[in-house]
From TrEMBL:
This is Uncharacterized protein. The lineage of its organism: Archaea, Nitrososphaerota, Nitrososphaeria, Nitrosotaleales, Nitrosotaleaceae. It comes from the Archaea. It comes from Candidatus Nitrosotalea okcheonensis.
Length: 128
């Protein structure tokens, strides 16, 4: 993922599968297309991308990748930008093991990405 952020949480006693579903519900309500895998060896992985004309102009294969690792009392949320993977269940482990895997992005897209990434992360923190 490009520009990955990691936020750790301790002593929250949060069901991580339920948290993943809440994240998906929140993103879906904001107009994102999402996909989820819970069978990754690295944790729960959610990909989200926003549809629309601006998205088509910027680059339609980019998506947010949100990974939840750890257990209910000690977990981390990793969020970053990467490439939309058609079959996330197959490619999740490979994509997340390589930290700088995806294409370089230009300055306007990077600024937009950081803005949206921060907004998504704020919403996730509110769920916790």
């Amino acid at each position: 993922m490009i520009s990955e952020k990691i936020v750790s949480f301790h002593d929250k006693n949060k069901d991580l599968n339920q948290l993943a579903q809440q994240i998906i519900t929140t993103l879906d309500a904001d107009g994102y297309k999402t996909q989820l895998t819970t069978n990754s060896p690295t944790g729960i992985i959610i990909q989200a991308k926003k549809a629309g004309i601006l998205r088509d102009i910027i680059t339609a294969d980019r998506a947010f990748t949100i990974m939840i690792t750890g257990d209910s009392n000690n977990f981390a949320i990793h969020i970053g930008i990467g490439k939309w993977v058609q079959n996330i269940a197959v490619a999740a482990a490979e994509a997340l093991l390589l930290s700088v895997l995806f294409l370089a992005i230009d300055i306007p897209e990077m600024l937009w990405t950081k803005h949206v990434e921060n907004e998504v992360l704020k919403k996730i923190i509110q769920l916790i």
